[in-house]
Write a structure and sequence with these properties.
Radius of gyration of chain A: 19 Å
Strand content of chain A: 25-35%
Number of helices of chain A: 10
Number of domains of chain A: 2
Order of helices and strands of chain A: HEEHHEHEEEHHHEEHHEHEEE
Largest interface: A-B, 75 and 75 residues
Oligomer: homodimer
CATH class of the largest domain in chain A: Alpha Beta
Number of strands of chain A: 12
Structural class of chain A: alpha+beta
Chain lengths: 328, 328
Amino acid sequence: METYRSAGVDVGKGERFVDRLKAAARRAGHDKLWRAAGGYAAVCPINERDGIALTTDGVGTKLLIAGQLKRYDTLGIDLVAMCANDLVCVGATPTLFLDYFATGTLDDDMADGLIAGIVDGCDQAEMILAGGETAEMPGLYERGHFDLAGFAVGNVTKERLITGEAIRPRQTLIGMASSGIHSNGLSLARKVLPTDTDTIEALLTPTIIYSSAVRNALAAYGSLITGIAHITGGGWRNLFRLNSSVGFAIEDPLPVPAILERISAHVQQEEMYKTFNMGMGMCMIVDGDCEPILKALGASGMVARKVGIVTDQSMTLTIAGSAVTLRG
Amino acid sequence: METYRSAGVDVGKGERFVDRLKAAARRAGHDKLWRAAGGYAAVCPINERDGIALTTDGVGTKLLIAGQLKRYDTLGIDLVAMCANDLVCVGATPTLFLDYFATGTLDDDMADGLIAGIVDGCDQAEMILAGGETAEMPGLYERGHFDLAGFAVGNVTKERLITGEAIRPRQTLIGMASSGIHSNGLSLARKVLPTDTDTIEALLTPTIIYSSAVRNALAAYGSLITGIAHITGGGWRNLFRLNSSVGFAIEDPLPVPAILERISAHVQQEEMYKTFNMGMGMCMIVDGDCEPILKALGASGMVARKVGIVTDQSMTLTIAGSAVTLRG
């Protein structure tokens, strides 16, 4: 069986590096920021009431898969999604987006496709494409290779900032369906799946931009929402980022997309849940009646349902009908 | 003779792409932004009086040069410099920085060196290192290769925003000395220079972070400063970005650093001024007495002097003692 590590990505090593980075950042004034749930965004006060939320992300090796079909017009949606979905996890309203696009030699078709996707993503996320940087770096990127990073800004008030501190046992977990693999775990997928056109097209399905739907829910029912986890690298372990004193029981998981089912033939179940979204691209924690929130998410076009509850088993996640237990 | 194009970088093609990108961005809500000088940063209003300024940049193929000596602890200074120096060009105070670091396989020494430089740069620029993204992408980056992008945020008031519209003929140009090649034109430098350790060390000299010195000058004499150009890709043509109705006469240029003199043996003079900073990393345009500003910049540790004047020759730049005339 393959693992994310055997596919060349050592999450543990990455996490240790991030810990050292955080220590360095603390020395560089990090204490002036507001504490926000899960580190999904950095939140900086601009006055006592208002703050701005910032995040940066890329789309990982999904880039390489797009290159195989020379189909570049959806990667920008993934890029905006990775950033906008992170911003709403701290309760912020995404407002501004910038992109960094680096390549060996500028290819007009590639570049125009990437822009089209970024503009499409900004439309979906209701963000302004404020600027960007295009870098031509012969010698660093091979012919046809490129990298893409996004940077996003949102507004948040201190009152509406989600810190995760209000998460308590017996609160409800709402799962929001993913569209497929989204933008995480592609290195492992590439290692175990064939490279026929149908498979690549399935892998290229763009990440769902949940931000507008989540914003609508937050606007109407924000006081009931105690945590939101964007399920990215690390899979369902992302839930542990929200609050270390609780655990989670997933009792009625959303269906696993077909492309992830195919990968699971080559990868152990636990590794699947630690690497992929497994059908749940976002998870929202609700204190109280979740029916009106489910209705609001549905009205925004999202497939969402109650998938489980918060437990008192600190940093432990159990999945009904599966032998898998994840620990933080 | 070599050109930037023969070194694999087609600036014209890049500029045409940026024009298409701007058109796309206009469709994506760009008209809500405040107009700022030279496009050095996107400025978004947060209320009638205050705005935030945003920029993103990388360090180009300086990355590859660092890799040759495995010396990574100054690239972060370049990265912060490229962003912070851009922000002050619109009159903003740099506040927050995020980095995007992508590599094939995470190398602890490399990663720690990069962080150390970023923290050092944030200290110099008086910015908070608010966050970042570390991406491991096997298959995209060769062993030892990586990319680095920076995102920076600053504060600006509408009153202090520099638009370049107040630039008029006969105003004074203050040049601020560069430390060497900074972070632009490295692909061309790599093509024409030998790869001995002394040369590589000279090329690696970090970009000067001008932002704190410029902020001090803006705080005391902001009403006299009508334009600021960070001399980056495009060389001295960056001045044309500030105001298309004027030109510039450089009468007393700063000394050209030795490393750029060495490159000029292989590259035509006009190409040198269109690609490199040629000794002037920042240029400030002053309406009135520039002596107090020169004193303030000197007190902040900068080497600065009067280098020329604004002319009425639209989009034309002449350099005393040189046959070079640049046109926009």
